[in-house]
Design brief:
This protein is of the alpha+beta class. The protein contains 19 helices and 19 strands. Strands 1, 8, 9, 10, 11, 12, 13, 14, 15, 16 and 17 form an 11-stranded mixed β-sheet that branches. Strand 14, helix 14 and strand 15 form a beta-alpha-beta unit. It is globular. The protein starts with 7 loop residues before the first helix and ends in a 6-residue tail after the last strand.
Length: 522
């Protein structure tokens, strides 16, 4: 049974929204699981619930265009200029920009916001430390030029274009220094307070957070992007997908997130409801440990496995449209992503490949999470591989246990998923096509796959300033990994959501943070 919320606000909200069959006209009510949320500080929040909120609470210097995510638009900056050495960017700030507190945007706020991420050194900080920043040197890379200009510099061999992508990530959200520091304790840059409060310039601000129970946002009329159309957003913690579906069907909520294929199927055709399947930057793949056994290291097995993955059968029949077939390491929607799908399920062709390579009686253990959809997919693969003469023993376990074994190279093969950490092709290239041989826990490292040439290409792509040349580099790497690697990338997930059909203006993109509430109306 759900525990009683120890908050008068939460109690009143729960009572108000359970006593009626329609939500208030000025409030967007969302049902989803919020059990993952531990902090709403952009320097720490790295979970689905928090990053979905950040775009609506905070703004960055530059952000993706909702209609064309690969196109970065000025937000709190009006323009920027790369330095002559391609190791700096100077930003001109919006003159009219104010935080929800009423404090004007200053270069000091930019310096504070980016510097505190590195100094706090929490989970998302790696996105910015790629620039060569650390606790000791970060202040030297952030400089106020005058009241409207700030310079950001770095010593890593990366291009300004790549740095702009990193500065568009949620961790690069700009915080009101005066408000944060007024609530700081023991030199924490306001971190504890920002866990359940906000100090941003986005269209909404946090009014109340009861972690793992409810999040209430209220409009920020002074947001530089303009006031939002609705006054409030209420995000209710409803852990069970079936319960979320029922609340939506009854009209008690406006949006139900992260539904399963069964819930979506049950809602189709229901009066007053519309459903959407939005591509996510999450790929599902088989990964072989090539250092474990000579058979697993044989490229013939990798090739045969590409013809033993029943892509369409799993995506369309087993998972009922919750996934789509995708075979390259950049998700659909990313800069340079290839949508080529040259492989299809063909057991006889796989048998011929194995026979030619002299591989007989092939078998391996496939480790995976015991949760859906992982176990469902793994069991389907067990059947499809068997038709090609390959015996697969499925070894399910807790997600944390499987992850620990994979990181320690204690596996033969695994079925796993990889989600993008930020909206730039390097987020996946640096995992699938990069093994720096320094112990970095990339996917290539975990496969014990030594790829000096691909690793050099990955680094070259982050240093390339020309967007077209970057695309060429990433497409060449994708084709190489698609053709010859110990991965079989098979599926890209879709985010299944449903909403009342009177909602207008809701936008959601491929990355978890690309959720936009400002233009929603009823």
């Amino acid at each position: 049974m759900k525990k009683i919320i120890p908050s008068l606000l939460a109690l009143s909200l729960a009572a108000a929204f359970s006593a009626q069959a329609a939500t208030p006209k000025d409030t967007l009510v969302i049902a989803q699981s919020t059990d993952d949320a531990d902090s709403f500080d952009p320097a720490q929040g790295f979970e689905l619930t928090t990053v979905q909120s950040f775009t609506n609470i905070y703004q960055r210097l530059v952000q993706s265009d909702p209609g064309n995510p690969t196109d970065l638009k000025p937000t709190l900056a009006t323009s920027w200029q790369p330095g002559s050495d391609n190791r700096s960017l100077t930003f001109e700030l919006r003159k009219d920009a104010k935080f929800a507190s009423g404090n004007p945007l200053r270069p000091e706020d930019v310096i504070f916001s980016l510097g505190r991420v590195v100094k706090l050194n929490l989970d998302p900080s790696f996105i910015l430390t790629q620039l060569g920043w650390n606790k000791e040197n970060v202040d030297s890379f952030l400089k106020k030029i005058d009241d409207q200009h700030v310079q950001i510099s770095w010593n890593a061999n990366v291009s300004p274009a790549y740095v702009l992508s990193l500065l568009s990530a949620p961790v690069s959200s700009i915080i009101d220094e005066k408000t944060a520091q007024a609530n700081a304790k023991n030199g924490d840059f306001g971190h504890a307070w920002l866990g359940t409060h906000s100090a941003g310039s986005g269209p909404y601000q946090i009014r109340k957070v009861v972690l793992h129970e409810a999040v209430l946002l209220s409009a920020n009329p002074s947001s530089p992007g303009g006031a939002p159309k609705l006054k409030n957003i209420l995000i209710k913690n409803v852990p069970e997908p079936a319960a979320r579906r029922l609340l939506l069907e009854q009209g008690d909520v406006d949006i139900a997130r992260n539904l399963g294929a069964d819930q979506i199927a049950a809602l189709k055709g229901k009066s007053g409801v519309k459903t959407e399947a939005i591509p996510m930057a999450s790929l599902y793949y088989i990964q072989f440990n090539v250092g474990k056994d000579p058979v697993l290291k044989n490229p013939a097995l990798w090739e045969a496995a590409r013809y033993l993955f029943d892509y369409k059968g799993i995506a369309d029949n087993l998972l009922k449209g919750q996934f789509e077939v995708h075979q390259t390491f950049l998700p659909k929607g990313f800069l340079g992503a290839l949508n080529e799908t040259p492989y299809s399920y063909d057991p006889e062709k796989a048998k011929a490949i194995l026979k030619k390579a002299g591989l007989t009686n092939v078998s391996f253990t496939l480790s995976t999470s015991n949760q859906p959809p992982y176990l469902d997919i793994a069991q389907a693969l067990q059947g499809s591989f068997a038709k090609g003469g390959v015996k697969v023993e499925v070894q399910p376990g807790l997600s944390s246990e499987v992850s620990t074994r994979v990181k320690a190279h204690q596996f033969e093969a695994t079925l796993n998923a990889w989600g993008a950490d930020y909206f730039d092709p390097n987020t996946n290239a640096a995992s699938f096509a990069y093994n720096p041989e320094d112990g970095s826990k990339t996917i290539a490292y975990r496969s014990d796959w030594h790829i000096p040439a691909l690793s050099k290409q990955t680094l070259a792509a982050t240093a390339e300033a020309d967007s077209n040349k970057r695309v060429e580099l990433y497409q060449a790497m994708q084709r190489e990994v698609l053709k010859n690697s110990p991965y079989v990338i098979g599926l890209q997930a879709r985010n299944l959501i449903a909403m009342r059909d009177n909602l207008k203006g809701y936008v959601q993109g491929i990355n978890p943070d690309m959720v936009y509430y400002a233009q929603v109306s009823k």
